[in-house]
Amino acid sequence: MIGADSFDRSVANAYSGATRGKGSEGGMSVPRIVAATAGIMGLAAFAPAAHAQENKFELSLAVVEVYDSNLLRINNDGGGQTDNLSIAPRITLDYSRRLARQRIFANGYAGYAWNDRFTFLNRQDVAFTGGADLRAGPRCRAEVTGSLFQAQSDLEDLGEIIRNVSTAQDYSLRMSCPRPSGFYPAASAGFFRIENSERRRDRDQSIIDARVGIAYRRPALGDAQLFGSLASIRRAREVLTPAGPAKDVTEVRSVGLRLSRSVGTRISAQVEVAYTDVAPQLPGVTPFAGITYSGEVGYKPVSRLGFSAGFGRSVAARGNVGTSYYLQQQASFGTNLTISNRTSVGADLRLAERTFRGEDPEFQLRPRGKDTQVTASANMRYRLLQPLTLELLTRYRKRAADNEFYDYDSFSATLSAMMRI
């Protein structure tokens, strides 16, 4: 898969407050993260969809209020007002139903965000995901999902402070036929498309990716999968060259190995290592060939307390970052605690370093080169009454780039209230 960026962060805010997805407010988080950590799609035999475990149909009304100390995402050493308070009423859906051995599901929200200071950023705010978990025969299964997201882009990498409403479509198909022991096949494919407002049509993008693998399972050792993957990244921009206009197309190919193991319900781990080749077709864009990797560890010493950690080196491209692609190294640590049936808390720390390849013309006079991002967040969720749930999410984010023009930090607090109808 090919990675997430500032557009992806703008959906996560609402999912945190309204439908319990993960992410950071102010950005959009597309559920199927396309990131070539060790290939293009990090998939083996997959677990059942978490949102499709029981029959349910819930409609809720939600109100999400966000304070952001630096909504414009600018270096504010010279002073000036950058803080903003927004409020977004939404209606949310959480639906899941079993049909014999099959399941269908849908969840998401639709609303509108009003800003008190930067009213030109007022916009619709929509995020929906639906699909089916299908079974065939005694072992084989497939999950089909489709998602639609629409919201104002995060201003971090747009190149200027403008209104830009982004619409993303995201489709995926995952298939496998796992066995209790022995060899089994796994495959996946996906399509992602993002369309922007008129002034950022050059950031429109589509990604097609696919992966096939052969896995081997031994109960005492876990699962191992050899895989091959490929992706084609096509951006709308054209660059004039002596030979004429050239399209911004990048091909990504990977071959690798994925290992995963669970010890009861307390410990789970997976690691993926691959050789990845990135071949940009646009003249002047530096290619990449080397090792990519990712790892995740989860630990639950007791049922109410969990810890997680991850690391990786990936090839990423998805969204409005304004590059043909970029290399990213990241690490994360998180914890969550269920205090009671009504109350839960969590915290998360993420560090990432990005090296940009093939920056858009907006950045040529002030190229970003490389940047480092540190994000720390904490949240608390409390069910006040049976139909009413409150959530508070706080986040601090700091960016330091080779070009200090793009340095900034921001603090945000999101208060969400959701009541089932």
Please give a quick description of this structure.
This protein has one helix at 9-19; strands at 56-68, 84-99, 102-115, 123-136, 140-152, 165-176, 182-195, 205-218, 222-241, 244-263, 267-280, 288-302, 305-316, 323-338, 343-359, 370-385, 388-401, 408-420. It is mostly beta strands and 421 residues long. It has an 18-stranded antiparallel beta barrel.
Explain how this protein is built.
The chain starts with 8 loop residues before the first helix and ends with a strand. β14 (323-338) and β15 (343-359) form a beta hairpin. It is mostly beta strands. The chain has 1 helix and 18 strands. The model is unreliable at 3-52 (pLDDT under 50). The chain has an 18-stranded antiparallel beta barrel.
What labels describe this entry?
single chain; 421 residues; mainly beta; 18-stranded antiparallel beta barrel; 1 helix; 63% strand; globular; disordered N terminus
Return residue spans where pLDDT drops below 50 for at least 5 consecutive residues.
3-52
Report the mean per-residue pLDDT as an integer. Answer: 86
- Global geometry: globular
* Overall helicity: under 10%
User: What's the total number of strands?
Assistant: 18
Straight-line distance between termini: 37 Å
Name the helix and strand elements from N-terminus to C-terminus, one letter apiece: HEEEEEEEEEEEEEEEEEE
Strand fraction equals over 45%
* Oligomerization: single chain
**Tally of individual helices:** 1
Largest sheet: 18 strands, antiparallel, barrel
Strand-pairing-aware structural class: mainly beta
Q: State Rg.
A: 21 Å
